[in-house]
């Protein structure tokens, strides 16, 4: 089952452009100047309120799925099944993704490079590390060459047992 691409975090908001990090690791920009033109042509009067910078810059990411752009400062009132409701204005995340421009992928953490440097500094072979950590030389090679993902628990085991070092992770 494919994961639906959704917004994780807004990185930058400038006049009528929003750059966001998506949950697939892509950084993408939506330029709303083109979108505003299509809204004017469709006479979508409510969405045209977003053309005001004071409104537009109030954008946030929804906390609940579908993780998309919303404007809490610009609610919409609608009637559904005979009941009038008010909710923040939000946009379809699939359309946002399709209309966005790819900027770059987020930088991956070079775990394999760090492990290789630490192993070489310790004067150990891949086989030495593998035996000490209870894994295979092939697996160590795949990690060092970026060909295999690694769980934090396994990384901890390789660093502590295989290299005889201490693993420290920091989130800043």
Q: How does this model look, in words?
A:
This protein is an alpha+beta fold. It folds into 2 domains: 7-105, NE0471 N-terminal domain-like; 111-162, lambda repressor-like DNA-binding domains (434 Repressor (Amino-terminal Domain)), CATH 1.10.260.40. Helices cover 35% and strands 27% of the residues. The protein has 7 helices and 7 strands, in the order βββααβββαβαααα. It has a 4-stranded antiparallel beta sheet with strand order 1-2-3-7. A 3-stranded antiparallel beta sheet has the order 4-5-6, with no helix packed on it. A hairpin with a 7-residue loop joins strand 4 and strand 5 (69-80). Helix 5 crosses helix 6 (137-144) and helix 5 crosses helix 7. The two termini are 32 Å apart.
Instruction: Assign a percent range to the helix content.
Output: 25-40%
- Globally, the shape reads elongated
Give me the strand/helix succession.
EEEHHEEEHEHHHH
Task: Give me the Rg, rounded.
Answer: 24 Å
Please give the largest β-sheet: 4 strands, antiparallel
Spatial gap, N to C terminus: 32 Å
Strand adjacency order, main sheet: 1-2-3-7
Low-confidence stretches: none
- Determine the CATH topology of the largest domain: NE0471 N-terminal domain-like
Category from helices, strands and their pairing: alpha+beta
The averaged pLDDT comes out at 92
| CATH class descriptor name of the largest domain | Alpha Beta
Helix count from the secondary structure assignment:
7
Number of structural units classed as domains: 2
